[in-house]
Amino acid sequence: MTDSDDSKQSPMQDTTTSTTDAPHVASVLRLGAGMQHYAVILTVIVGVVAIALGFVLGGVPGGIGAVVGTVIAGGLGWLSTFVMIKTARATPAGVMVGAMTAFAAKIVFLLVFLLVFHRTTLFDNRAFAYALFAVTAAWIVGEVVGFVRTRIPAVDL
């Protein structure tokens, strides 16, 4: 890799492997980077549409709700691939523990957020919910597309 290749890479995507890494490390790093790449692209597209629809259909409160839903869904989706990339050098069981911890953190965050803001008038709750759902679905579809397009076998024989 040249210096110019390094500048194009996100600082969160450590896709370099050393000669002492376990065999699964390169696969996990490539999968994480590929999944994150496609998920971000699809999430930005759906997020922009959700925010525009929020403003058009719900005015300022609808737009703010859509922005909040988009940011939360995108951030929580990003957390999964970030943890996957950062735990890649752990054992496969360690990667799974990291993934399950990230999943639990997402659930707790959403629970606390919804409990705190369930009767808010700061933003439109429907626009928030629709944007959260749409962006979450977009992130998941993007991860699946990224997983498939990296063409790494899920099982090493």
UniProtKB/TrEMBL annotation:
Supply the alphabetized keyword list: Membrane, Transmembrane, Transmembrane helix
Q: Which domain of life is it from?
A: Bacteria
- Name the residues that span the membrane: 38-57, 63-85, 97-116, 128-148
Region feature Disordered, mapped onto this chain: 1-21
Q: Give the compositionally biased regions (Polar residues).
A: 9-21
UniProt-recorded name of the protein: ATP synthase protein I
**Organism listed in the record:** Pseudonocardia aurantiaca
| Taxonomic lineage of the native organism | Bacteria, Bacillati, Actinomycetota, Actinomycetes, Pseudonocardiales
